[in-house]
Design brief:
The chain is elongated. It has three helices and two strands, in the order E-E-H-H-H. It has helices at about 30-50, 50-55, 60-94; strands at about 10-15, 15-20.
């Protein structure tokens, strides 16, 4: 591990001073985040599925369909992030 004493940047906004460290940004493309989000919606859907009767009796079947819609939208998000990652890689290679 390299210990450096890089100068930080200070910004004064109003009566507050903000200190910004000089760090490299994370290389995050959002694919893993989208995959985890879609998986969580799917798990929630599967967890609620055995309780369909109770949800129907209480008028809360929309919980189940919200989870299914979240999973479906999450799949679109995964594909979008994968295409964006691929386009960025192609642009950097060119």
């Amino acid at each position: 591990m390299e210990l450096r004493d890089d100068q930080t940047t200070q910004h004064a906004i109003g009566n507050r001073t903000y200190i910004v460290a000089n760090v490299e940004p994370l290389d995050v493309d959002g694919v893993r985040t989208s995959e985890v989000g879609a998986a969580i919606w799917l798990v929630a859907f599967l967890a609620l599925l055995p309780f369909y009767g109770a949800l129907e009796d209480s008028g809360r079947t929309w919980w189940l369909w919200t989870c299914l819609a979240g999973f479906g939208i999450g799949l679109f998000g995964v594909e979008y992030c994968r295409r964006r990652r691929k386009a960025r890689a192609e642009r950097e290679a060119a």
